[in-house]
Design a protein that fits this description.
Order of helices and strands: HEHEHHHHEHEHHEEE
CATH superfamily: Ribonuclease T2-like
Family: Belongs to the RNase T2 family.
Bound molecules: 2-acetamido-2-deoxy-beta-D-glucopyranose
Number of helices: 9
Structural class: alpha+beta
InterPro entries: Ribonuclease_T2_eukaryotic, RNase_T2-like, RNase_T2-like_sf, RNase_T2_His_AS_1, RNase_T2_His_AS_2
CATH topology: Ribonuclease Rh, Chain A
Signal peptide: 1-24
Protein name: S14-RNase
CATH class: Alpha Beta
Shape: globular
CATH architecture: Alpha-Beta Complex
Radius of gyration: 21 Å
Low-confidence stretches: none
Distance between the termini: 72 Å
Helix content: 25-40%
Oligomer: single chain
GO biological process, one term: RNA catabolic process
Length: 234
């Protein structure tokens, strides 16, 4: 009797470890492909690696995501980032599509994104594929151009409604994207007229992809911008 009780306990333990393993080695529903607007990064940070930030949307990351748990998954069990697994040819392309605009160390940025996010989808995309696919998405969905074609271009004072910015992207990709904004830093709003004091900065555009990172789908998470607050595209 004592024996069977402890072997039952053992089985329960094995099962618990198994569940933990499956969860930490990554399970997800879809991908968020996040592009950022470097000038906003540079307004929020005191210092940027380049004196004049890039006027191009660049990659922040490709994030395997869970519909019911916005923070999950991350930092999964998997291979650590290894520079040599990304071909030199791809690396030179990533320097344009996926630069670190803040510290200037691109490799460190890629390492952080792989270890935090890429490890959670490693069974779908290995390191080379993860970076390759992200670069292709960036190439194929040129947010800078979509917005420029709709006459939405950076401006120091003009503000936009959320739908002004989302609509042309939606028309171009035929799916609903998500925008993410950041509050304007206090130092920027002090001397501004009241209408602009209450505004937010466009920071990121998120496109959503299916489990295999091949088919673009609607994003249905709530937007990362305040409702009814004008958006500045700096
Ligand atoms: C998403 O997260 C929930 C809650 O943590 C979890 O129960 C579910 O299994 C996760 N879904 C996937 C596909 O990993
Ligand atoms: C934007 O990216 C393209 C690569 O497609 C590059 O040729 C161009 O120089 C970039 N523009 C700026 C302002 O960085
Ligand atoms: C990185 O990958 C290369 C080639 O796949 C391999 O030879 C090397 O041992 C790896 N380095 C580490 C630290 O895992
Ligand atoms: C950049 O980051 C990589 C990865 O963390 C690191 O190995 C390298 O030393 C860094 N380079 C510089 C110039 O700091
Ligand atoms: C995206 O569009 C911008 C503006 O038209 C252009 O400068 C850039 O080269 C394009 N990038 C790619 C990857 O085609
Ligand atoms: C932007 O407009 C140009 C010129 O009309 C067109 O060739 C290009 O395909 C458009 N790009 C996008 C992404 O809609
Ligand atoms: C988003 O779509 C997925 C897949 O269709 C669904 O499971 C999920 O419940 C939706 N979430 C919200 C917040 O609508």
């Amino acid at each position: 009797m004592g024996m069977s009780k402890s072997s039952l306990a053992f089985l329960v333990l094995v099962f618990a470890f198994f569940v933990c393993y499956v969860m930490s080695s990554g399970s997800y529903d879809y991908f968020q492909f996040v592009q950022q607007w470097p000038p906003t990064n540079c307004i929020l940070r005191t210092k940027c690696s380049k004196p004049r930030p890039l006027q191009n949307f660049t990659i922040h990351g490709l994030w395997p995501s869970n519909y019911s748990n916005p923070k999950m998954p991350s930092n999964c069990i998997g291979s650590r980032f290894n520079f040599t697994k990304v071909s030199p040819r791809l690396r030179s392309k990533l320097k344009i599509s996926w630069p670190d605009v803040e510290s200037g160390n691109d490799t460190k940025f890629w390492e952080g994104e792989w270890n935090k996010h890429g490890t959670c989808s490693e069974r779908t995309l290995n390191q080379m594929q993860y970076f390759q696919r992200s670069h292709e998405m960036w190439n194929f969905h040129n947010i800078t151009e979509i917005l420029r074609n709709a006459s939405i271009v950076p401006h120091a004072t003009h503000t936009w409604k959320y739908s002004d910015i989302v609509s042309p992207i939606q028309t171009a990709i035929k799916r609903t994207p998500l925008l993410r904004c950041k509050p304007r830093p206090k130092s920027q709003t002090k001397s501004q007229p009241k209408s602009q004091a209450m505004s937010q900065l466009l920071h990121e555009v998120v496109l959503c992809f299916d489990y295999d990172a091949l088919v673009i789908i609607d994003c249905n998470r709530t937007a990362g911008c305040w409702n009814n607050v004008d958006i500045l595209f700096p």
